[in-house]
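Section 5: illustrative case.
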């Protein structure tokens, strides 16, 4: 019933000084920030595709994936903005299992948070410096923002975090597009209240200081489905769901109404191959309804080099060790389909 202090963590300033982003990297990141916020605000008609592994596990395989994504981005750059998911923390419902590269740089060894902070920053830096794509990550722990604030062009607040006051307040200080997921219950009003909080100025304690934020006008919705009281997944990407959300968005008077549809999680019931069908349905609905086209600005897809998932001990290169993912062959084809339908 007590805490045992194991080691002191380096400060964000110390880690950024150890692994600084180059001037060219900073320029790439700024350009990607603007490309994404222009989509969210409606200034750009391009479509956002946030795609990559459920959780980053091995640096080599993740960077291999990003290198392939960069080559596809060059071919679809007139229609799509591709953002690699480099999710460095994995939320665990019951606390067990692999918790991400920031906890365990080597999934088969004990957690090492000091080495994890370095590994987290290094893999996200490589996406920018080597492949020209600044990443997305889920902000599971708001205090970690300082370690990656100069690297991320997109931040997601997860379904289990979106009701938390500290996450909402911290998101109000982010200077990049920030997606607020609906909670696991699927309740739209909780998500919209979270967006409202993130879009407005906040005054709170953060990192040992009293702080004030300016509000994040690019906070928006992510639909990931929900689970009812019987534990059954309830999708919320259908035409009727989006139409209902449009009405609720209008009533709230939020800035830059926008939705990203997460094609996995409770929308697919974690049947990873269903992501293809779900994305096609979302794009069809955008073609059918101008209101939906204006609101739905992108999709989120869980994808890796190999399809499915594996246990940590199996050692298949580029295959998820957390939730099952779409394989690269199907992912590449799906990206081209998205470009064609947009």
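Designed sequence:
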């Amino acid at each position: 019933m007590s805490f045992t202090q194991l080691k002191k963590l380096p400060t964000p300033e110390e880690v950024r000084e150890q692994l600084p982003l180059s001037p060219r990297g900073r320029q790439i990141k700024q350009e990607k920030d603007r490309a994404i916020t222009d989509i969210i605000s409606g200034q750009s008609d391009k479509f956002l595709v946030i795609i990559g592994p459920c959780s980053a596990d091995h640096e080599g395989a993740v960077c291999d994936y990003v290198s392939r994504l960069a080559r596809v981005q060059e071919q679809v750059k007139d229609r799509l903005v591709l953002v690699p998911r480099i999710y460095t923390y994995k939320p665990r419902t019951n606390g067990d299992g692999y918790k991400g590269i920031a906890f365990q740089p080597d999934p088969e060894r004990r957690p090492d948070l000091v080495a994890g902070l370095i590994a987290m920053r290094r893999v996200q830096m490589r996406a920018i410096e080597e492949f020209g794509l600044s990443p997305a990550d889920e902000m599971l722990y708001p205090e970690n923002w300082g370690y990656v604030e100069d690297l991320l062009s997109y931040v997601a607040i997860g379904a289990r975090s979106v009701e938390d006051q500290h996450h909402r307040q911290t998101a109000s200080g982010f200077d990049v597009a920030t997606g607020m997921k609906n909670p696991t219950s699927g309740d739209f009003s909780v998500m919209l209240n979270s967006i409202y909080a993130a879009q407005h100025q906040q005054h709170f304690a953060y990192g040992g200081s009293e702080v004030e934020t300016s509000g994040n006008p690019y906070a928006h919705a992510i639909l990931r489905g929900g689970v009812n009281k019987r534990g059954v997944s309830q999708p919320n990407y259908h035409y009727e769901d989006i139409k209902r959300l449009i009405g609720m968005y209008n009533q709230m008077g939020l800035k830059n109404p926008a939705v990203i549809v997460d094609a996995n999680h409770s929308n697919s019931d974690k049947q990873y191959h269903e992501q293809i069908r779900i994305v096609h349905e979302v794009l069809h609905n955008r073609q059918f309804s101008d209101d939906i086209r204006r609101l739905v600005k992108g999709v989120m897809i869980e994808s890796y080099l190999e399809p499915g998932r594996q246990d940590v001990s199996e050692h298949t290169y580029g295959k998820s060790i957390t939730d099952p993912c779409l394989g690269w062959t199907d992912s590449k084809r799906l990206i081209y389909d998205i470009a064609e339908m947009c």
